[in-house]
Amino acid sequence: MNKPVVVSEETLTEPVIVDAASPALQASVAGPAYVVLAGISFSHFLNDTMQSLIASVYPILKDNYALDFAQIGLITLAFQFTASLLQPLVGHFTDKKAQPFSLAIGMSSTFFGLLLLSVAHRYTVILIAAALIGLGSAVFHPESARIARLASGGRYGFAQSVFQLGGSFGTAMGPVLAALIVVPFGQPSIAWFSTIAFLAIVVLWRIGQWYRPQIRAKKTSVAERHPDAPSSRGVTIAILVLVVLLLSKQLYVSSLSSYYIFYLIDRFGVSTQAAQLYLFVFLAANAVGAFFGGPLGDRFGRKIVIWFSIVGALPFTLALPYAGLEASAVLTVFIGLIISSTTSSIIVFAQELVPHRFGMISGVFFGVAFGVGGLGAAALGKLADHTSITFVYQVCSFLPAIGLLAVFLPKMKQNTR
């Protein structure tokens, strides 16, 4: 019989006792658990496909209920606010007591939110439905990110990118499904997507069955820090810089996700369906960039990838407000590829700085991304009402310049496995 072995597993918040033949220890030696990574990425795909429907049906809701841009922004805020507010709390709670089946249970909130949105005929009910879908996101992201790291086999950037890939492609599919299903069949057809939520519940329940044996009694030892991690004050500064970098990135992406359809319709006179397909092009490029960012961070260093992905997009964002229709499509491809590659590197960088608060850190960063997206969407909608959509994109084009703050990040050697 194998004797227990003490390991410092960064995927949990503290060192744990595991059997030498346990899946957790074997995964760290044998490499990533690809089936689990595929399952959690597929779940992320389903989750974000449903969430992206909210922004994709904005033109329908705007026409049906005579909403202005500020009210459209408030719908995004209602969705993003619940996700932003609760994600750090969920992460903090699961740091102390892991909940293997919380993902499946949380997905039920999304399920009911979609059903409610399909029958909502009052603005207040639309806001409640959006908030319910945001609640499902708050439960999903922190614990699913933990599972992705647990299944990484030490390739943390790669695992985070696989996880992000599913979400990014799910976000990209929203406009396509809206164009093919919701636009022709109307708001009630949103209820059809509740079947996706049910499928996600089944997959997440199976993942919970894999996750449950990995959980072991926690000990009092503190998780090992990265050998190149700075002092406590340096960690605080680095975390603040990473938060600001993610803010600038997410605010720009939010401006495209929420208002790009209206921008194309207003400036170039394209149809709603055509505009949704152009949005899909940007979001698909976003998904591809998100996948490659993590492995590149594992190989060349996360700070280098952060520098490139945020500042590198600046020339293209500056050109976008002045480009024609075809050139805009090309520019958004480059913007999506470059700017999205930073997400995995930022999150893994922060996790390495504060490994003993893995769930909370994941929740804070995912929550900040959602929260700023919501607040930004509301503010940009108000600005668009008083100026124009084109002016909004002229202002937002300077956001990637904030990436220059990456100079204050510490140098930390990467695992090249």
Helix content estimate: over 70%
Q: Name the poorly predicted regions.
A: 1-30, 217-222
CATH superfamily: MFS general substrate transporter like domains
Shape: globular
Question: Major sheet, described briefly?
Answer: 2 strands, antiparallel
CATH class: Mainly Alpha
Order of strands, widest sheet:
1-2
For the termini, the CA-CA separation is 31 Å
Compute the number of strand runs: 2
Structure description:
It is a single chain. The chain is 74% helix and 2% strand. With 417 residues, it is mainly α. A two-stranded antiparallel ribbon has the order 1-2. The radius of gyration is 21 Å and the shape is globular. The model is unreliable at 1-30 and 217-222 (pLDDT under 50).
Attribute tags:
417 residues; mainly alpha; Growth Hormone, Chain: A; two-stranded antiparallel ribbon; 16 helices; 2 strands; 74% helix; globular; disordered N terminus; MFS_trans_sf
